[in-house]
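From the methods appendix. Each design record in this collection lists the tokenized structure first, followed by the designed amino acid sequence. Records were kept in a plain field format so they could be parsed without special tools. The example shown here is representative of the layout used throughout.

RECORD:
FOLD TOKENS (200 positions):
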């Protein structure tokens, strides 16, 4: 009996195999002008695992490029950023947003693009993001980094992915004149200001 029990005890005492846990991810939704450039910037940030161009906010139940660009739906062109918080923080994403991805002092426009759909807006995905983004904007305004007040708004609203042809547009068309003039400089600035976070 004892000889039979020993192997059984050894078998039951063997540790269970450790399963690798997938990395925890979080999302951020930011609007700052044409989503082509915003998407391209965050595609070059370490710790970001996915970026989707789309439409955020607004009152309509759906959003398409034609509807949003008519300025009648209340949506803003935006990007949904999926990131690993163990590699990059929400605060660092906002720092890139305010210093590289767009000009936060422009109201309802960004460069050559004019209209409320090109506004500067943050769409918090949690109460913690809401508190952090609100405090971040307050600190920036108090610091008077820019000569004009920050136009960035904190908003609510769902996110609708844009049409397929908008996804990864700048990366797939890097030599279009619009991209060269408006978006290529953002990538250069990201590499210069955040070299430790830049990925090619």
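DESIGN:
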């Amino acid at each position: 009996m004892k000889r039979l029990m020993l192997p059984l005890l050894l078998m039951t005492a063997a540790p269970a195999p450790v399963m690798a846990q997938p990395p925890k991810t979080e999302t951020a939704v930011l609007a700052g002008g044409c989503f082509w450039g915003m998407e391209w910037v965050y595609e070059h940030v370490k710790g970001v695992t996915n970026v989707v161009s789309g439409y955020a906010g607004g009152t309509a139940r759906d959003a398409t490029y034609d509807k949003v660009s008519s300025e009648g739906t209340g949506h803003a062109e935006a990007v949904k950023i999926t990131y690993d918080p163990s590699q990059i923080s929400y605060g660092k994403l906002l720092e890139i947003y305010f210093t590289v991805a767009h000009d936060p002092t422009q109201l309802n426009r960004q460069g050559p693009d004019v209209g409320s759909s090109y506004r500067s807006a943050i769409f918090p995905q949690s109460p913690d993001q809401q508190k952090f983004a609100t405090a971040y904007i307050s600190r920036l305004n108090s610091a008077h980094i820019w000569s004009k007040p920050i136009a960035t708004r904190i908003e609510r609203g769902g996110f609708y992915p844009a049409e397929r042809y908008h996804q990864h547009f700048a990366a797939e068309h890097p030599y279009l004149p619009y991209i060269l003039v408006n978006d290529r400089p953002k990538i250069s600035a990201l590499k210069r200001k955040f070299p430790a976070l830049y990925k090619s």
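APPENDIX NOTE: The radius of gyration is 22 Å.
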